[in-house]
Amino acid sequence: MSLTAADSTVVTLTDQEWAEAALVGAERNREAESRGYRQGDGYESPNALANHQQGARAELATAKLYGMRWDATINGYSKVPDLLCCEVRSTSPLRPYLRIKRRDSPGKRSWAFILVTYLGGKTFRIEGWIYGYEAMIDEYLDPEPYSLNDKWRVPLEALHPPFTLQYTLERLSEVREAEMKKGPARQEAVNQHSSSAGGRNG
Description:
Layout: E1 10-12, H1 15-34, H2 48-66, E2 86-91, E3 97-101, E4 112-120, E5 123-131, H3 132-135, E6 141-142, E7 151-155, H4 165-201
Parallel strand pairs: 2-4
Antiparallel strand pairs: 1-5, 3-7, 4-5, 6-7
Helix pairs in contact: 1-2
């Protein structure tokens, strides 16, 4: 699938997809509660379950639009990307910016952050994307005196247009596949080295 500037970036989930993402969000919320994790502002939120479910639905909507596999991870906790090397951030029309929490930023400067707006019903719109290193700058930093976590807030106009994300996803996919291939190769080299060392010692 290849998007162009003229393509729609609005996607609607089916009833089954909506329900599936709700279950994933509920599991994430349950896992977060069992670990004592709180919302990004450091406080317990009565909307925690809804937030987790909405985030999962935004991920699935993005994967559906771009023809990607959605892994629906439960306990990645900022260490495992939502899609490839991408983080999906959901928002509403009343909050037209992308948020990145400072505490979540280590190791994510090379990741792509995708902003998705919930339009109501079962419909979402992909607004755009930005690399972590482009977003994590002083210009977008928004210190919050009464919060436990400062954030970068990136306005819509600073995001790359959605149709350019297709190439980025393809490139990130190639990088990920290459890294996965290196893993077994490195382990095999370690095993061979260990065997030869053991032979010499024997």
